[in-house]
Specification:
The complex is a heterodimer. Chain A is mainly alpha-helical. Chain A is about 75% helix and about 0% strand. In chain A, helix 1 runs antiparallel to helix 2. In chain B, about 45% of the residues lie in helices and about 20% in strands. A 5-stranded antiparallel sheet of chain B has the order 3-2-1-4-5. Chain B is rod-shaped. Classes of the chains: A mainly alpha, B alpha/beta. The interface between A and B is medium-sized, with 19 and 16 residues.
Chain lengths: ~70, ~425
């Protein structure tokens, strides 16, 4: 399953669902590996998004205040 | 008495006059007309009845140029000041009769104090009257517009002062524009009062078209102020609803017109400067206001910028906080994910182990090993007393085979 077209919120929502399922032990052992991988993928995706936003904010600040 | 020939009659009259009026005599009269030609003053004298305007006496008199020059030199006074139509005068005349030219009166002296005294009295009376009527400061109370640009000028088209006034206005250094309309009137002599009054009435009818009335007369000390002391003129001017500005051109004294005017200036040029200065003041106020406005605008912009920058930094920190929060949450989730997955696996393993153990425990084999056996009757497992039938063989299964058992008396546990 790809994360290409997910928004941050969608990714986060999916992630939270998986975590909840794990917490409530609703995940079957057969699915455990795939769910874990998916969760890892979503976490990475969200982290990348956050890094990207951080980068953009820094660039914008530099543009506005070249002395900084 | 025999008939005279004309020459005889005239000779008689000449002798009669010369005999009866050998010396110059003083005479009081009103000047109806003054005509100055080549230094000679030709005077029309009249006397009007005290109770009506009817003329009761009339005569011509002349002051020759030599006499006029001598008089002016001795008295240090210009004849103009005294000899004006409408004035009461006291003059000393030599009356002569000439057979060919008729009667003549040569002025040998003139009493200026008589005329000036009367004028002063009249002036006092007029002032008193205006004061009583509250007219002396009526015009001063009329507000002059802040930017007076539409001016009704009362002056004589030939007056030098008018030229000074208009030139000064038009050539003002600031480029202010004035709309000037001339209302021609005599500004000296006996026609001054009726003509100026007529123009005041004309202007009054269109008062809303003008900001002020300007009365202008070319100057110098030789001009007489008495024309603008005249009672009916002053009364009319005092009742104008437009402010009156005077530039009557007298350096030292003020006419009553000057006193009652909204603003009195000494010269026409000064009157023009008055208007220019007034506009300039407004201009300066506006420039100042403009500066203040700009300053205030800049102030506002600066404040708005400060507010914006505060908002900006607060947004930045909020975003940072949110991002950090998210990052923290993600890290947390990641750790949790590992734990959960490991736990889940562990649980599954434990469950499996349990199953295995249970299986071991429950498996038939192990039971048999431990000494348990399974009883059957015709292939059916027997685990209750009630299930046992007496006449059917019972079979017991052991780890290494089975054996038939016989039942004597099956007993239920108590």
């Amino acid at each position: 399953m790809s994360t290409d077209h997910l928004t941050y919120e969608q990714a986060m929502a999916e992630l939270q669902t998986i975590m909840q399922e794990l917490q409530q032990e609703q995940v079957s052992i057969d699915d455990l590996s795939s769910k874990s991988e998916r969760a890892q993928q979503l976490i990475q995706y969200c982290q990348e998004k956050l890094r990207d936003i951080n980068l953009r904010l820094e660039k914008a600040a530099d543009k506005q205040d070249p002395s900084a | 008495m025999s008939d005279y020939r004309l020459s005889e009659l005239n000779t008689f009259i000449r002798r009669f006059v010369a005999l009866n009026l050998p010396e110059p005599v003083w005479v009081e009269a009103e000047l109806a007309e003054v005509d100055e030609r080549r230094g000679h003053y030709y005077l029309s004298l009249i006397e009007t009845a005290a109770d009506s305007d009817q003329t009761v006496a009339r005569a011509q008199a002349v002051m020759w140029d030599r006499q006029a020059r001598k008089w002016q030199r001795q008295r240090q006074l210009l004849l103009h000041r005294i000899l004006q139509a409408g004035r009461a005068i006291k003059l000393q005349v030599q009356v002569e009769f000439h057979e060919r030219y008729g009667i003549s009166m040569q002025v040998v002296d003139l009493d200026p104090n008589y005329t000036l005294g009367l004028l002063a009295q009249q002036r006092e009376a007029t002032l008193e009257l205006l004061k009583r009527q509250g007219l002396l400061d009526a015009n001063k109370r009329i507000p002059l517009p802040m930017v007076p640009q539409r001016l009704a000028i009362i002056s004589s088209p030939v007056a030098a002062g008018l030229q000074d006034f208009t030139t000064q206005l038009k050539q003002n250094a600031y480029g202010y524009e004035f709309r000037i309309q001339l209302f021609p009137a005599a500004v000296q002599g006996p026609q001054t009062s009726p003509e100026v009054r007529r123009q005041l009435r004309t202007i009054q009818r269109r008062a809303e078209d003008y900001d002020a009335i300007v009365i202008i007369r070319g100057g110098g000390a030789k001009m007489d102020l008495a024309d603008f002391d005249e009672r009916t003129l002053c009364e009319a001017a005092a009742q104008s609803t437009l402010p009156i500005i005077t530039g009557i051109g007298h350096e030292t004294d003020q006419s009553i017109m000057d006193m009652l005017a909204h603003t009195a200036l000494k010269t026409p040029t000064a009157a023009a400067d008055f208007f220019i200065d007034r506009l300039m003041q407004v201009d300066q106020h506006l420039a100042l206001a403009n500066q203040q406005l700009q300053w205030l605008q800049e102030q506002h912009i600066r404040q708005a910028e400060q507010v914006l920058s505060r908002i900006e930094s607060s947004i930045k920190s909020q975003i940072q906080q949110q991002l950090q929060g998210q990052e923290w949450q993600l890290r947390n989730m990641q750790q949790q994910l590992h734990i959960l997955v490991r736990n889940r696996l562990k649980l599954a393993e434990l469950a499996l182990e349990e199953q295995i153990k249970l299986h071991e425990v429950l498996s038939l084999e192990s039971h048999l090993k431990r000494g348990f056996s399974v009883l059957t009757q015709e292939g059916k497992i027997i685990n209750r007393i009630e299930s046992i039938r007496k006449d059917v063989p019972l079979e017991a299964q052991l780890t290494d085979g089975s054996t038939e058992l016989t039942i004597k008396s099956p007993q239920k546990k108590k």
